[in-house]
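Weekly modeling sync, notes
Attendees: S.R. (lead), two postdocs, one rotation student

Agenda item 3: backlog of single-chain predictions. S.R. asked that every request posted to the team notebook include the full sequence so nobody has to chase files. The rotation student volunteered to paste the first one in as an example of the format we agreed on. Action items at the bottom.

Example entry:
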Amino acid sequence: MHATFLTDLPPELYATIASFLEDDRRDLYSCTLASHDWHRIFNPILWRDIKNDPASLLLSGAAATGSLTRYGHYIQHLELACQTEDFGEFLALAPTSLPLLRSIELIGQVDSDEMIGDLLRRCSQRHGGGVGLQRLVFEPDGYGGYFDFRRKSVEALMEHVSTLEVFCVEKPWISSREIQQLLRSTPRLKVFYILPRDRNERIDLSCCLNANDVVLPEWACTSLEVFGCPIGGIPRPDIAREIHDGPVSKLIPEGDQQESLALHTQVYSQLARLTYIRELRMGIPYDTHHEHYHRYDRESDRQYDCLAMSLESGLDLLRGLKNLQVVALEDMEVGIDAEDELKWAKQHWPDADVTTTEFGIDQDIESTLPEIEDRSSYSVFEYEDDDRYSYYDDDNYDDCDYNPYDSDSEDDFGRRGYSNTLCQRKINRG
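Predicted structure, as returned to the notebook:
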């Protein structure tokens, strides 16, 4: 009887065999120690996916033995929970070229633009001879956490524009022109998302796409499915509202109706080309529950220089976005909840859930709650065991998980509902 050895099998079967061992990476590691042939076969597979805390045993052991330096060039998917110091140590030990790296996810905080740019250059086609980055996800942890993603990081990322498909960086320190530069240079981009995931922080609208920068050439990312980015800088002479410390007009760029309409048309025309888009998120609700909230914050921080989202402003230009499932316009001064606009949306966006926030005088949250014995019927914001956000409203929403960073499923961005029943209005498509 002729014995069949592993090395006799076609190379394409090695990954299939290894997939049965990946639930316990120790088994996969043991295979690399069996023989030189097995080491040659299984070592690249062992290093293919690194999902680790730098302080954990795998990377600590790799650092101690120098194996990260020797074998790090096999890494294809990198997921690290780290702070700046940990990230710096990883870069010091990792190879200067990461040619197979195509997916990066960092959770924590890295306050060095240079370090982030360094990692992006190591896997670029130009500097590292790489295959090109497809997925970039940065998720800050805790209140005030951030990634110092700015000029040097953007410059390094521009070396990946031909391959980039997912860009999810919460609150990056990038300008409107840099946002526009990315959108017009990334033909394969499917997800562009810079809104904060943490509802305890209001989006810093300095990281916002200014309507004046939405100019030719047209965006290259016509296959975009998820767009999560505030758009501002639009004159709104239609708003005459007064807030606690004066007229809203002081928060809006000056301009007459004609100038406003020209900018609206410019932005609507760009968005109208995104015929594959499923989620259009330009707003995020202001959470009045957190400890950093002060009276009138929500009233002042509401976005007034946004797209009016009204038929008068040119909303009908977006009638072709038939795949829309989510339109998030929270805490924005929009007109889409007017009667004519509701009829229009139901006709042209039949599957879309449109969420807006009604304007209200900002008050302490306790003074606005109805007098009811059991407040458990009001929604809360909580984590689930799998550390994914759950947003739900007991009366108006279905329970839904939202994790914009999970690329394992076909639907990378699940539908999202919000829990603040006092200020949220969800347009029911019935």
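Discussion: group reviewed the output briefly. The mean pLDDT is 77.
Action items: rotation student to repeat for the remaining queue; S.R. to check formatting next week.
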